[in-house]
Specification:
The chain has helices at 13-20, 24-29, 35-41, 53-58, 65-68, 79-84, 143-146, 150-161, 181-192, 206-209, 216-223, 243-254, 273-285, 309-322; strands spanning 108-110, 113-114, 120-124, 168-172, 199-204, 228-233, 258-264, 289-294, 330-333, 342-343. The chain is an alpha/beta fold. Strand 1 and strand 2 (113-114) form a beta hairpin. Helix 13 packs across helix 14. It is globular and about 55 Å long. The chain starts with 12 loop residues before the first helix and ends with a strand.
């Protein structure tokens, strides 16, 4: 019997096997939400870590076991741990950091619909995520006011249908793959009726942090929509790619979906050429194109992750020497009010 909700740190290898045999909703329900439980599972002493209950109160801890199991036990400097542990640095104020660093709110045409870029519109389908990444640029987003519900979903479909220049819809959040198969299927079927829409792009961390979400039901939903599906996964470090993740990515690729990766350049996580080279190589082996290396969006509470732009440029130059061009991600940043992501000039 797995003792997860109250005592997830008591998991042993037998209990972990039982956990991973459950469906994705059950695995998500059993995600770590307590700093104490997570640290006990990872054989870490809280006194040795700069953990902050105040930071966890502002932005709760949430980590699926599938991701936590890839963190090296006893290692306080593990790059995966740094991505998910609430720490004191989140409470510091950094110049230029704000609650809406990429200008989402001014681009909200109506509830759940962001229209920043020509030909593309973004739907905020949910505020839920499988994992709360500490560097999240929407950690302060007012989901209660702006995420889609059943009523506003219909209004968003009507808006897209009346805009013939929109050829791509981006499903975002939160994480759109936290929606149930029924809800996701309903939304995608509605979008599939819009003739001028060519593609549906899904941004999701679930194939990496909760690979059990990649079910045959989900694949059938994506196949049945009649539009080209582009899936942008979000992997920052090769250590995130465990056996379960590999299986999920291979399955998605074998079904003919276009897969890209968008990583965020994070201090103490992947600000290292060797780490980035390994990430690109392992992703490509699984059929995922390393697409973006994104400079940090300056959301309040994330300043300790920032890597200077000059360092990012130096890292890309190092990758160009070591990797073929198709494995070198584009270094980009997003600026509020701009009509596209800004490609960083590395010359």
């Amino acid at each position: 019997m797995i003792e997860t909700l109250n005592n997830p740190f008591m998991l042993n290898s037998l209990n972990e096997t039982a956990h991973f045999n459950k469906n994705w909703q059950q695995q998500l329900a059993e995600a770590f939400s307590s700093i104490d439980d997570l640290c006990k599972y990872l054989h870490l002493e809280i006194k040795d870590l700069p953990v902050s209950l105040a930071a966890a109160s502002n932005f709760p801890l949430r980590v699926p076991l599938s991701f936590a199991a890839s963190i090296k036990k006893g290692d306080i400097n593990d790059p995966l741990l740094r991505q998910i542990l609430p720490i004191n640095d989140e409470l510091q104020l950094y110049p230029g950091f704000s609650s809406d660093p990429v200008g989402d709110l001014p681009s909200a045409i109506q509830t759940g619909v962001l229209h920043k870029y020509h030909g593309r519109t973004l739907l905020i389908n949910t505020g839920s995520c499988a994992i709360n990444c500490r560097y999240c640029f929407r950690r302060n987003f007012p989901y209660g006011e702006l995420q889609l519900n059943k009523h506003s979903e219909n209004a968003s479909i009507e808006y897209i249908a009346k805009q013939p220049e929109i050829t791509e819809v981006i499903l975002s959040g939160g994480d759109p793959l936290t929606l149930s198969d029924t809800r996701l299927n309903t939304l995608i079927q509605k979008l599939s009726t819009i003739n001028h829409l060519k593609r549906i792009r899904i941004h999701s961390r679930l194939p990496i942090v909760l690979p059990a979400r990649i079910t045959q039901e989900l694949i059938n939903t994506l196949h049945d929509c009649g539009k080209q599906i582009v899936l942008i996964v979000h992997c920052n470090h090769a250590n995130e790619i465990n056996t379960r993740v590999k299986t999920a990515l291979i399955q998605l690729k074998s079904e003919g979906f276009t897969l890209f990766n968008q990583a965020v350049l994070l201090k103490g996580v992947n600000d290292n050429a060797e780490v980035l080279c390994k990430l690109s190589e392992e992703l490509f082996e699984l059929g995922v194109i390393p697409y973006y290396l994104h400079l940090l969006d300056k959301a309040s509470g994330t300043g300790h992750f920032e890597v200077p732009e000059a360092t990012g440029i130096a890292l890309i130059k190092a990758l160009q020497i070591r990797l073929p061009g198709y494995l070198v991600p584009k270094l980009v940043k997003e600026q509020a009010g701009e009509k596209s992501k800004q490609l960083i000039n590395i010359n």
